[in-house]
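Exercise 7.
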Amino acid sequence: MTKELKQEYTRKITQANKTELVVILYEMLLIYLDETESAHKNEDRDGFRDGIRKARGCLKELMASLHFEYELAMNLLQLYLYANRELAKADIRNSVEELQHVRATMEKLHDAYEKLSKQDTSGPVMANTQTVYAGLTYGKNSLTESLADQGSNRGFRV
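Solution. The predicted structure, written as tokens, is:
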């Protein structure tokens, strides 16, 4: 993931509600799958394994975010465990076939959660974060960010 993309996701995370955070995790997982496939095409075994490790990290976070008081959580857990096994197989076999299975499942879940996030009217999970304003500068087609309220009292409220 590029430095710019990491900054974009950091900004998204600070402004996201609970459902949007799940969507962000799915998006990151799909990006890591893209990177993994790209590394495999370039015969970069270390990059391939690193992409799988990062994708599995996203799955781990998705599993940790499940609320088991709801019946749906067990179904999602089974899908996440399946995806985790497929990623492990891909790593062992040095194959991208299993990545396609994971991608198909995660894209469907991403689309479903994206629709749900549009209905979620709750506020951001993180309160007291910096406000980000973006606008065009005097440079040709360049975009700059201005941060407001740069006090030391940022992030989660305790």
